[in-house]
Each structure stands twice: as structure tokens, then as C-alpha cells.
Design a protein that fits this description.
Elements (H helix, E strand, L loop, with lengths): L1 H17 L2 H23 L5 H16 L5 H24 L3 H17 L2 H5 L12 H25 L5 H25 L4 E2 L13 H4 L3 E2 L3 H30 L5 H29 L7 H13 L1 H5 L3 H16 L3 H8 L2 H9 L18 H11 L8
Antiparallel strand pairs: 1-2
Helix pairs in contact: 1-2, 1-3, 2-3, 3-4, 5-7, 7-8, 7-10, 8-10, 8-17, 10-11, 10-12, 11-12, 14-15
InterPro entries: Osmoadaptation_assoc
């Protein structure tokens, strides 16, 4: 079963990137055989290591090859996640490095992309103490998810966000920045820049949009930074939405809230830009599919500031990056691109300019300590009584 899963993954990936249909079809046949063997083991109640590893391989395979679209993909992923969930108490206690890697991947995928209801079913992920920076970062994503759900509920019912909601967002933002400052020596040094005209991925040039592409000490360091920026980007968009709600429902200081709401959206754009400057490094050929998987989890979020601020060129670049990943054999990247097809069409058909000229642009890495200082001096200035 495990051998068939490994062979299926290899054949399908090779068939896709080489355009070899016979190898692709053979890989699909192996996949179907492996699924049948896995189903038989599950019916017998077997949850051994072969079942675990086969399930993880099938999860990767479903990201690479999902010809039937998002709905079928999600149903397949729900099934494989259900299998993993039954094994998690044993996986977390294991010292096997491969099993620990499985936990890390599932934690981050769940944290960055899941809804609150789904997150609640994965509380076993939090049983292990937060001994590593990655675990602490995951816990902050859980808090982000809870805030995101609350803000979305306020938007849905047309309710009014409170000062407590805004304070919770700012507190979480400070917590994320503090985490980076405290863990910088552990997670790796800040990125440096490639020289003008250099790029680790010649198919994704972006000097004129975001600044020069970033270079990292390692892919692990890149992952930490991308997750750090993604967390801050989501929180800034939550602050933006919260302030907008307070403004439209009759908060007294309308002009002040409007200004701060826009500032938060601009900051979200800044963090999105940092992620986009990191994507060429992650997609360089020598990193194979690892870098692609690191980037994919944030791509749902990274386009949101560009949509809000009508940054057509940046939005289009993200769409192109997803299509480039699809050409690399990652089907889900094409699906993520298609999710915003209507937005892209509206951008192309509209003559409407950007919401505003960019007011924050720094080609160099801005120190999180500086950002934390600015946040500490500016947060908490809006109250319901202002």
C-alpha cells in the first residue's frame, strides 16, 4: 500500500511536469489501487504507520492532482484529515522526526486556512507544550482564527464592532511582533536582498512592484518569516474591518476611524509585499515542491489587501505566481487563482484607479522592534466614547 502511494505520487508529479500522459494515467491507477488497500485496512480498524504515511502521501498527491475541482478536493482532504485525527494523540507523543514533521505541516495548514468550527476539531494539536517557536506561532494563529470568526460574524449580521474587539486585535498584533523579537536568534536572521537584476526565479520578476526579492539563510527561515508576515497581514485586515464597522455604524469620530482603517489596510499591503518578495526564493528550482507548499498556505490571504486597495498590478502578479505554480505541477494553485477570477475580470474591465497612492514603501526590511514601538504608541487611541 505504502509503496503504491509513493509510486503514484512520483508518477503523477513526473507525468504532470513532463506532459507525459501515459505516466500520469499509470500514477492514477496506482493511486486508485492504494486507496482501495487503505480503505480495507481502515475497515479492519488498522491504524499502523503504513496507514499514517500513506494518508500523508495522499494528502500531498491531492494538492498536486485535483482535476475535479475544489469541492471534490475538499471532500478528499476531509477524509484524509479524519484519518490523521484518529492517530494524533500517538503522533504527538512520538520522537520520530518524520511524525513531528507531519504534525508541523498539519498545524500550519489548519491554522492558516481553517474555519473556527474545523479548528475546534483539532484541539489535540495543542496538547504538546509550546516548546518551539513554531508551536508558539501556531497558538497565535489559533487566536487569529477566533478573532477572524468574530469579525466575520459582525460583518454578516451588520453589527457594531466594539472597542474591546479593536483592543483584542492590537494586543494580538503586539504579541506577534514580540514573538519575532524574542525568537529572532532561533528562527534565523532577517532576509537580505538580491541585487538589482538578480532573482532566484527568473519567471517571477517583481522589482518594480514590491522591491527587490528577498534572500534567506534557509527555507526554514523563509517559512518562519512568511508565516510571521501572514499573521500580521491578517490581523491588520481585521483591524481595518473592525474600524470600518465602527465607522459605518455611527462611531462619533468618523474621520479618525476612516484614517486609521485605511492605515491598517496599507500596513496589510506592506506585509503582503514582504511575502511576495519572498515568493521567488521559495519557488527557485532547487527547492523543488517544498517552497511551493510553504507559499500556498498564505496565497488565499495575500491578495486581500491588493483587492481592497485596488492594486491591479500586484493582484495580477499574484495570479501569475499561482499559474506558475500550476505549471510546476501543483493543481491547487490553479484552483486558488480561479477563486478570484471574477475579481480579476472586474479589474481588467474597469478603468478605476487605485484607491490611493501607496504611502508606505520601504525596500529594506523594517525591524519588528520599530513596528512594535509604533504599534505601542498608536494602539488604543480610539474608544467608543471618543
Amino acid at each position: 500500500m505504502l509503496e503504491k502511494a509513493i509510486s503514484a505520487l512520483s508518477c503523477i508529479y513526473l507525468g504532470k511536469i513532463k506532459g507525459d500522459d501515459p505516466i500520469l494515467r499509470y500514477g492514477v491507477e496506482l493511486y486508485n489501487e492504494g486507496i482501495r488497500l487503505l480503505a480495507n485496512k481502515l475497515r479492519r480498524g488498522t491504524l499502523d504507520d503504513d496507514v499514517l504515511y500513506t494518508t500523508v502521501i495522499f494528502q500531498v498527491l491531492e494538492i498536486i492532482h485535483c482535476p475535479d475541482g475544489l469541492r471534490v478536493l475538499l471532500s478528499h482532504k476531509a477524509a484524509t484529515k479524519a484519518i490523521l485525527r484518529r492517530s494524533y494523540s500517538n503522533i504527538i507523543a512520538s520522537t520520530n522526526p518524520f511524525k513531528k514533521a507531519i504534525v508541523d505541516i498539519e498545524k500550519l495548514a489548519t491554522a492558516v486556512t481553517s474555519s473556527k468550527g474545523y479548528m475546534n476539531s483539532w484541539q489535540s494539536l495543542l496538547l504538546a507544550p509550546a516548546a518551539r517557536p513554531l508551536d508558539e506561532l501556531f497558538e497565535m494563529y489559533v487566536s487569529i482564527n477566533e478573532l477572524f470568526t468574530k469579525v466575520e460574524e459582525i460583518k454578516y449580521i451588520g453589527g457594531q464592532a466594539s472597542h474591546a474587539d479593536l483592543s483584542a486585535c492590537h494586543s494580538l498584533k503586539q504579541r506577534i511582533l514580540t514573538w519575532y523579537i524574542e525568537k529572532e536568534g532561533t528562527i534565523g536572521q532577517p532576509p537580505t536582498q538580491y541585487l538589482y537584476g538578480e532573482s532566484p526565479c527568473a519567471d517571477l520578476l517583481s522589482n518594480g512592484l514590491f522591491g527587490l526579492p528577498y534572500r534567506f539563510q534557509s527555507m526554514s527561515t523563509a517559512r518562519y518569516h512568511i508565516l510571521f508576515w501572514t499573521a500580521l497581514m491578517i490581523v491588520e485586515m481585521l483591524i481595518h474591518v473592525t474600524l470600518t464597522s465602527m465607522r459605518t455604524v455611527g462611531n462619533q469620530d468618523l474621520s479618525k476611524n476612516t484614517h486609521l482603517s485605511h492605515e491598517s489596510c496599507i500596513m496589510a499591503e506592506y506585509y503582503a509585499d514582504q511575502i511576495c518578495r519572498s515568493i521567488p526564493y521559495c519557488l527557485q528550482e532547487k527547492l523543488s515542491s517544498w517552497g511551493t507548499h510553504v507559499v500556498l498556505s498564505c496565497m488565499v490571504h495575500v491578495k486581500k489587501p491588493y483587492i481592497s486597495l485596488r492594486r491591479k498590478a500586484k493582484f495580477r502578479w499574484c495570479q501569475d505566481a499561482l499559474q506558475f505554480m500550476k505549471k510546476r505541477g501543483i493543481d491547487i494553485a490553479g484552483i486558488l487563482s480561479d477563486l478570484n477570477r471574477d475579481t480579476q475580470r472586474a479589474f481588467e474591465e474597469s478603468n478605476m484607479g487605485q484607491a490611493t497612492e501607496m504611502i508606505l514603501r520601504d525596500d529594506l526590511f523594517i525591524s519588528p522592534l520599530k513596528l512594535l514601538t509604533l504599534e505601542s504608541s498608536s494602539s488604543g487611541t480610539i474608544t467608543d466614547e471618543d
